[in-house]
User: Fold these one by one.
Assistant:
Number 1:
Amino acid sequence: MTSFSPVAAAYGGSDNRRSYEVVIGGQRESGAQGRPGLVRAAIGNVMRGSIGVADFRGRGLPLRRVMIRPAGDAYGVEVTAELLSALPEGVPPLSSKRVYAYLDISASLPNSELEYADVEFSVPRSWMRANSVIVAYHYNGSEWEELPTEVVQEDLGEVTFSARTPGFSVFSFVDNLNEQFGEGEHENTENVDNYVRLISGYTQGRFTSRIFDAGGIAQWDNLEWSFTEPQSPASETDYVGAEPDVLKDGSGRVGTLWSGSYSNLQNQDSVVENISETSTGGGGQTITYSYVSQENVYEGSTV
């Protein structure tokens, strides 16, 4: 058997080791002697289209109620729940999950005759974290399957959830907040092939990942952080502005001498140079910069 340490000790008190018999809602409910954490709740007869309720409140379990909707008429329905201190043979523990409790829930009604069931359970706020995501899982015979879970009630001490299941088996109530380093919260960033990068169009962003707190300075020999500064071309264009058609002296442009003499335009060979404007655009200049891409990698450093 696979051993683990859930919160069974908090529920498996001495009161659960006594045999007892309690009447709730006209139905008889009985506990099993010598089976800590095992509780039975009788529902009775449930007709097709109706819902039968097994009440586990006040019984020392995180389980509160089990609502059963049978596929047909069902008679003498009973639900049994047991808080597990060890998982049954062949049922692996949930990996990478913070488990609050494992329970084995079964019913006298076979799963093949069940339309669905709703499992209500409560988790104390003292166990939950600020951004906890509480969900229920059930083992479907080959793997753990996450069940659709929603909040149904909140108070100062605990939060009650409801999960819909297609059948009964081993259940786990867990904090499903992902604690894997590579799956955090993205702000203007995205994960592409296990690389975090800025989303196109953004110049800055944030990636927040849940990692363990080493309690101080620690040496990480498997941590690698890298970034690439992309090539960043930039350009600026300036043009010489065209002269106005009317010059400062009020004369026209063509054939007008502003100052000096035409002889000043002559070289030593007495040839007058032909000067012409080729640009009629506005102001500006052309300057091009180009930076080579550079990758920076940091690994195995003290953080």
Number 2:
Amino acid sequence: MLKSCLDAVAHGGNPQDRAASLRHKSEQWWYFLDYPQVPPDNNRAERSLRLAVTKRKVAGGSRSWNGFERSATILTCDSVKSC
């Protein structure tokens, strides 16, 4: 069944290349079943970035290189809590 689903991939690029890539990485899809400490999704990582992205957007931190650097420094200090 998985093979037939992979064979049906046809969005963007060469479908055969995409299906081959998915097939090659298929063992990684189920890694969390063998290792319960590995979450089945990346929600935690996305949640940890959400506040930083919102702060940067509201502050306009990406409009200039200086703004980008300042935002990156502040957000890094916020996440590491060491500055």
